[in-house]
Amino acid sequence: MISILISAVQPVTPEGIIDRYPNSYNHFVLPFVIGISFILVYLLIGLIRVLYHLTGEDRIKLLKSLFIPKTALKNLKDLFCDCLLHTKIWKRKPLLGYMHSAIALGWFLLIIVGHLEVYIFAPRHLEGITEGSLYYPIFYRFFIWINPAHETLRGTVFFFIMDLLLLYVLSGIGLAMFKRVRSIALGMRHTTKPSLADRVALYCLWAIFPLRLLAESFTADLSGGSFLTKPMNWMFKAFFGNELNFMPTWWAYSICLGLFFLAMPFSRYMHILTEPLLILMRNAGLKVRKPRKGFAEAEIYACSSCGLCIDACPMNSQKKNLKYSSVYFIRFLRRHNNRRINEIADKCLMCGKCAAICPVGVNSPEIRRVQRETLNNSINYDYSYLDSIAQTAKPENAEASAEGKVLYFAGCMSHLTPKIIKSVESLMKASGTEWEFLDKDKGICCGRPQMLAGKTQAARKAIQANKALIEASGCKTLLLSCPICLKVFKEEYGLKGIEILHYTQFIDRLAKEGKITLEKGTEAIVYHDPCELGRGCGIYNEPRNVLSAVGDLKKAPKERDESVCCGYSLGSMTLDEKDRAKIAEHSVDNLMAANPDCIVTACPMCYRAIRSKSPVPVKDFAEAVVENIKPSKTKK
Amino acid sequence: MIDFGFSVSPSSRINLDSVDRESFAALAKLEPDVLKCMACGSCSASCTASQFEPTSVRRAILSLQNGQVEQALDLLKGCMMCGKCTMVCPRGINTRHLIISIQKIYGK
Asked: What CA–CA distance (Å, rounded) separates A244 from A402?
């Protein structure tokens, strides 16, 4: 079988395969040709637009990334896994994954195998536009006549593969139709409302493959077919008698294809063509600079409007908030509807769940942040009081002994929950760690809240002041108890030679090094992943390592990157107290499903939010650890 | 001028007729929470920025109601948006959005 396929790759023109139409043209190809030409031109212009709006620096970065072996390899892997196999959907919802890869991978393979077939049996038609290379491979079965007496094994293999692929696609289309009626069967509670262009493209897409099956069945006795098309051909002959039926079906097939391509740029299906570009740009490390141009535009057009983010959004525990989902944000961005864009941008909690589960990987919270920046960055502020702090802090004044010390930055929110600070203090004592307290009094905000509010300039000021203080301390390890701070310290500070640790990582390390010994209690614990710690910084395992040594760690139904935001995130600007409380309840419900004795979290904000709604005691991570340190060590 | 050892302090009279009520109405529309404040002062007590610079949401709201716009803006310009005031507010006022809204509407 394999040797047949290998030998099949060499082009030959066997006898008995001839063009039914001398110049290989028929009027019915016109709709398709118009459609495909339109989409190709549109794609070219779009590509130029996106590249034009990138900054020069970003363009060079993108170009360079294509030649870095590691990035190029990742590009290839992502293109294959995300665009063709859709591993991300498979992992979350297998049936949905099957549906999508049946349509996408199946169609892709139909095109590839179709071209291969033409390359082998009628290579002349791939030589140029004048030979019909644009449409010929698509309508190959219409133009070719194969003498049944000369049908080769090689040809039969191709007929079989093509029919199998068509069946594969049709099974996906069938599921897609069923999904429109009952989406929950495929694992989606809510789906998006399609726009007009979406509907046109959608119905065309549904029609394309059944029509292809019909069209190829009508001509199967002329151009060959296999298990699907041949029997249908016999059946049709028995029913209709003549062969003239095939002309209208081929016309319909071509019109559907043409219409699909014409509607594509205005519909959700633009994601098929934009996703590869987005993958390249993302792997090159580009960032969103403007909310509607450049990289953001690639993200906007790559959004498949699938609506997986609707179910994921913690706000949507209330039905009235459905309209604030990422998918609608992107849709309004695409339509330049500024009022709605700002409304949605301000509402979002920025928990990042939509970005984490997005099959295309559209980072919409980041676009929202940049959108807020366009409105709020220019708001007046006066941080002149920070200047003197930044100036007096000098690295030269640092004590030489400070190098081995740990510098603890509690952050604003930890100061609201003194329990956390006390726990960290006793932990330091128990483990015998030498440490300094950076913001014991007169602490400066880390800058993340300003960033989230879109006041980037103001954030820079705060970052500058804190950075000066940290560098002046001379310590080489920075310990944080607030994940909100952690994210900005990691991403924006650029602290060279200073290790930034969250206390979950720090405690995990202490336990591994044997500086503290943990006693296993009998309590059933469930751990809440704070958004900024988990999805924001990718820290999932360290807290779990420690907690499983402290008690009986249970699993919440939704955890790790699926964890539900506590609702009190600083990310949202306009969400009011009542809505936040509802989200907190929803979040607690998810945690309580594991039936724990206590809930542990590692963020001062989540701690406060969950405590207000939880029926069981809520502990901070450090607190839970300190309670379970073996006393023998503490005495040392 | 003869120095009497004292001076006349500037008038602290507020003329409510000349207060810009439209802006306050616009603010209340943008962030209705401004009407909820009961001036308990939790926000000022917890404020990060007030350790450096007089900053207080409570007093800013009061000043706005009195028509002292400059004073209100002065009380908010040092805000670091950290959100502690939102967390401690017993009335559940969305202070961060309130501050930004005040700055947007009054600050030019």
From this structure: 90
Question: Cα distance from A100 to chain B (closest Cα, Å)?
Answer: 41
Q: Which residues of B fall within a CB distance of 8 Å from A458?
A: 80-81
**In angstroms, what CA-CA distances link A11 with A23, A60, A119, A130, A323?**
21, 41, 6, 20, 55
Domain presence at residue B95: yes
Instruction: Answer whether A500's CB lies under 8 Å from A489's CB.
Output: yes
DSSP letter, residue A499: E
Give B-chain residues touching A413 at CB under 8 angstroms: 82-84, 87
pTM to 2 decimals?
A: 0.88
In a domain, B49, yes or no: yes
In chain A (636 residues long), the average pLDDT of successive 10-residue segments reads: 44 62 84 94 94 91 92 92 88 91 93 90 81 85 80 83 94 92 86 90 94 89 85 84 77 94 92 92 90 90 90 88 90 90 91 91 92 89 84 72 85 90 91 87 89 91 90 89 92 89 92 88 91 92 91 90 90 90 92 92 92 92 89 50
Span(s) in chain A for CATH 3.40.50: 385-508, 517-635
What is the rounded average pLDDT of the residues B42-50? 91
Contacting residues of B for A415, CB less than 8 Å apart = 48, 84
For residues B68 and B80, what is the distance between their CA atoms, to the nearest angstrom?
Answer: 22
Residue B1 lies in a domain: no
Among candidate residues B26, B31, B22, the one with its CA nearest the CA of residue A346: B31
The one-letter amino acid code at A371 reads Q
Does B84 contact A415 at a Cβ distance shorter than 8 Å?
yes
Q: Do B94 and A574 touch (CB under 8 A)?
A: yes
Domain presence at residue B67:
yes
Report the C-alpha gap between A120 and A130 in whole angstroms.
19
Tell how far CA A545 is from the center of its chain: 27
Q: What are phi and psi of A127, to 5 degrees?
A: -75, -25
CATH architecture of A517-635: 3-Layer(aba) Sandwich (3.40)
Contact status, residue B100 vs residue B90, Cβ threshold 8 Å: no
Domain limits for position B52: 20-106
Residue whose pair of structure tokens reads 């006693």 in the numeric block:
A519
Is the distance from CB of A140 to CB of A114 less than 8 angstroms? yes
Predicted confidence at residue A632, as pLDDT, reads: 54
Number of domains in chain B: 1
Q: Which two tokens stand for residue B42?
A: 């939790």
Q: Does B79 touch chain A (CB under 8 A)?
A: yes
**Which chain B residue shows the shortest CA-CA distance from A605?**
B87
* Residue A514 tokens, joined: 């044997």
CATH class of segment(s) A385-508: alpha beta
